[in-house]
Amino acid sequence: MQPIQAQIESVRQQITACANAAKRDPASIKLLAVSKTQPAERLQAAYEAGQRAFGENYLQEALDKINALSNLDIEWHFIGPVQSNKTRDISENFDWVHTLDRLKIAQRLNDQRPAGTPPLNVCIQVNIDQEASKSGCLPDELEALALNVADKPNLQLRGLMAIPSPNQQGNCAFSRMRALLEQLQKHPKLSAMDTLSMGMSGDMAQAIAQGATIVRIGTAIFGARD
């Protein structure tokens, strides 16, 4: 396996190529390194290669790494399912949450955000293919949830996130996500939404072509997990 620095450089080159193909500014696309199951020293190696945003799925594992790497200027993103009994630790320790999917969780994250800290950046997870096995807000419930979240003073509603079905054809799910965001942006209270968190190592090009602003990349940076 290539050193992490080389892997990150390769992914950044791919992002640039995909952005150019889509006639987009590569700087408009953030690389989120998905670092679940990776030890802190590998995150530090990625940090030394210039990576600043890291996505974690498992809370306790993430808290251990946040503590171990507290001397580094890392932007921490929570990208796993948010359970009610974990909202306090998430709200206190993360900069972003990508997986907000119901009002109860929004209320708890808002109420438990420490005083004096910036609002927590949140994306609403959309179950874009309406799969029974997946978390996420259904598309027809999205606007009502977004308007409620936008009213929370300690949350900053940034946009939408999705994990399309592996069976999705071409750009279809990503295109629908883009259309959902554009529809929400027409509402005065939601016009500042600017984020589409979608695309992983295997489908990054299609996601960028459809407007992804954050791509969540794990395998292409850290290699396949055991």
> In one word, what is the shape?
globular
The multimeric state of the shown protein is: single chain
Rg estimate, integer Å: 17 Å
How many independent structural domains? 1
The H-and-E topology, N to C, reads as: HEHEHEHEHEHEHEHEH
What's the CATH architecture name? Alpha-Beta Barrel
General description of the model:
The chain has helices at 4-21, 40-48, 59-68, 87-93, 103-112, 142-150, 172-185, 204-209, 219-222, and strands spanning 30-34, 53-56, 75-78, 96-100, 120-125, 155-161, 195-197, 214-217. With 226 residues, it is an alpha/beta fold. The protein has one domain (4-222): Alanine racemase (TIM Barrel). It has an eight-stranded parallel β-sheet with strand order 7-6-5-4-3-2-1-8. InterPro entries: Ala_racemase_N, PLP-binding_barrel, PyrdxlP_homeostasis. Residues 28-225 form the Alanine racemase N-terminal domain. The modification N6-(pyridoxal phosphate)lysine is found at residue 36. Belongs to the pyridoxal phosphate-binding protein YggS/PROSC family.
